[in-house]
Amino acid sequence: MMIDGILREYKLKIDSRLDIIFPITGQPYDTVSEASRYSLLEGGKRIRPILLLEFYKLCGGNDDCAYNFACALEMIHTYSLIHDDLPCMDNDDMRRGKPSCHIAYGESMALLAGDNLLTEAFKICAKTQSIPAERVNKAIAYLASAAGTTGMIGGQVIDTSVKIDNEQLLFTMYSLKTCALIRAAAVCGVILAGGDDKKISLAESYAENLGIAFQIIDDLLDSEGEASIIGKPTGSDSKNDKVTSVTLLGRERALSMASDMTNGAIEILDQFGGDVEVLKELTKLLLKRDR
Amino acid sequence: MMIDGILREYKLKIDSRLDIIFPITGQPYDTVSEASRYSLLEGGKRIRPILLLEFYKLCGGNDDCAYNFACALEMIHTYSLIHDDLPCMDNDDMRRGKPSCHIAYGESMALLAGDNLLTEAFKICAKTQSIPAERVNKAIAYLASAAGTTGMIGGQVIDTSVKIDNEQLLFTMYSLKTCALIRAAAVCGVILAGGDDKKISLAESYAENLGIAFQIIDDLLDSEGEASIIGKPTGSDSKNDKVTSVTLLGRERALSMASDMTNGAIEILDQFGGDVEVLKELTKLLLKRDR
Questions:
Q1: Are the Cβ atoms of B122 and A109 closer than 8 angstroms?
Q2: Residue B220's closest CA among B186, B193, B252?
């Protein structure tokens, strides 16, 4: 199986859907659509949308129906990046290989573009047709929960305001900040396809493993990578004196943990009893990525 | 009818619901719940939630079912105030009679509290039970649309980035920035109660009139009010050289327009053919308010 080709095809299809969500219509507020498009389109591997679509198919869905949710995940991910990059947060000037949204459009427009992406994400979820409305509701609630206080935002709060001095707190933060939205991707796929509680629980465990592995690889790349490869200044964690899995565990233990988590994720996939080849390949690929 | 008593009772009930949405649970991310509570509770007239509940009842609903949406409206309104007050936006230090969220909790926490309120708003909407899921989805889509690019955010973009030099553009901005969320309140009430398209359209017209009247009164109060009455520094519009209905139309024409819009709103209510007394009294009260 050519996983690269499959992922490329997915990205093309997702990007073509994302491309029509913020049209430029000659309105006086077009700038916020431009700023939203600037951060949303081109860059990005579309991992969360692909996870959602794959879990949706795995549980019996026809993926065409779930693209609204897939796009919404990418929009929520992108809003979080725009707000994270703002001067009052991480103050990062580069993102996905180009100037951050606030560098390109100014701080107030970047703030509004983030708000805009988050708001419009829930709109397209709610506009999902051809999936029973009860499932759509349940998936919206799950997604919002994963993005909110007890999910991504909670993780961001710990990251920016709490002194992290032990592994437990660090991995709590990772579980919220990084895993929650990945978990929402997998679980919303299951929910929308009508999968049962056992499958929801398996999807949660898979995503938790994948998310931790993903974050550790990010930490490793940040500590050693080339800026031109990962698309943002490297060493930004150490610049900010941030505690990461690398500073807390050391490179070797961190890498071994990422590998264990990846294997754990792959083992969980086998329990679904369907065609999980694409998900397996994707999971392995994320461990080996260089950006 | 004692409208003050009715509104007070509504506010108590709404506030008691809002009070349980962000519990302090001893988590390391509690600060964002505290910051969200700080801006959400106590202050505020709860006009949008009350409008939603009244329209819901007017179209045959039992208001207990619609409190999640009512609270969500107040949360979205509050998020917009927190983000508007940030230094990169209006840079306002006071709100609802106390220091703005970013003064009390710092800029990054205020940013996250706003994101948090917006996200959790959609969560509680989607968790609405005892209203058919199709209606809930339709109302979420309407609400998000009113809060997004073609609504509140679009209006905010015009307000912060476009030079307003004519009445048409000013009232387009008001229609988006102020009316859209008021319109969502009225219309979501109708949608959730299963009201037909004619009622949705009437609710939209009512809210458009009310919203414009409301904004003009705001402009008038800002140009003349006492800081201690309206709870934020007055004259902030003129400080920022902002064009408002008062600077563009003059006080007399602005006041007369607010009065016309209020009367227009009241006439539309009569077309509903139900008990609209509370809505009428509320509408009149907003014209006469001094804060």
A1: no
A2: B252
Over residues B232-275, the pLDDT tens digits come to: 555 566 556 789 999 999 999 999 999 999 999 999 999 999 99
Cβ–Cβ below 8 Å for B149 and A33: yes
Residues of chain B found within 8 Å of residue A88, distances taken between Cβ atoms: 107-108, 111
Residues in A closer than 8 angstroms to B173, CB to CB, are 28
* Residues near A202 by beta carbon (within 8 Å), at least 6 away in sequence: A268, A271, A272
**Rounded to whole angstroms, how far apart are CA atoms A109 and A127?**
26
Hey, which CATH number is domain A3-288, 1.10.260.40, 1.10.600.10, 2.40.50.200, 1.20.1250.20? 1.10.600.10
* A157, A169, A175, best to mutate vs chain B, most B CBs in 10 Å: A157
Residue B195, pLDDT score: 98
* Segment B98-130, tens digit of pLDDT: 999 999 999 999 999 999 999 999 999 999 999
